[in-house]
């Protein structure tokens, strides 16, 4: 597996790469990508760790699984490649930003512009077989990404964690709420959002207010 990540992340996560579970995970992912169509492209599996360094990470948004349709996933949770129609959850994220901050819907759903500012767009599982949601779950990815969350919690301070939906909310137990801001709400998927669990959470303005209070640069959402 091509682990192309920023050197600062590699320094923090190097011990994980040496563990047995990660070696087994690597073997599984290599076999899957050889025998099946998988997403994101192999060189983008670790894209979330390649766009900004560990020290600059100010916000963590947690997703569950990469998109499993052709040309969508680019290694950043909720993000799609340029020119791809907004999936429903991403559209609702942009609608909340419009309601919260008055920003019009963007031209592209590619969230690299957030990642480059220190927003870690982390899926719990970093790969998936085409058209088979959850097909790479429980193979070791969750052990790795839980360790990422714990490392950020222990080694940094004043990071905003956005946990949307039941699955993400369970990760709050990995985070020290005394030195970080944990924001929770329903998931932006239509099922949750249309029931009133997403819109109006104002997570994007709350994140920026917190960062500015701590003397950190806000995110240009």
How do you describe this structure in short?
Helix content is 36%, strand content 11%.
Number of contiguous helices: 8
The separation of the N and C termini measures 32 Å
β content, as a range? 5-15%
Roughly what percent helix? Answer: 25-40%
CA-atom Rg in angstroms: 17 Å
The mean pLDDT is: 95
Widest β-sheet, arrangement of strands: 3-2-5-6
Q: Low-confidence stretches at least 5 residues in length (pLDDT < 50)?
A: none
Morphology = globular
What's the β-strand tally?
6
Question: How would you spell out the order of helices and strands?
Answer: HHEEHHEEHEHEHH
Oligomer classification: single chain
Q: Structural class, judged by helices and strands?
A: alpha/beta
Question: What does the main sheet amount to?
Answer: 4 strands, parallel
What does this protein structure show overall?
By secondary structure, the chain is an alpha/beta fold. Helix content is 36%, strand content 11%. The chain is built from eight helices and six strands. The strands form two sheets. It has a four-stranded parallel sheet with strand order 3-2-5-6. Strand 5 (160-164), helix 6 (165-169) and strand 6 (181-185) form a beta-alpha-beta unit. The protein is globular, with a radius of gyration of 17 Å. The two termini are 32 Å apart.
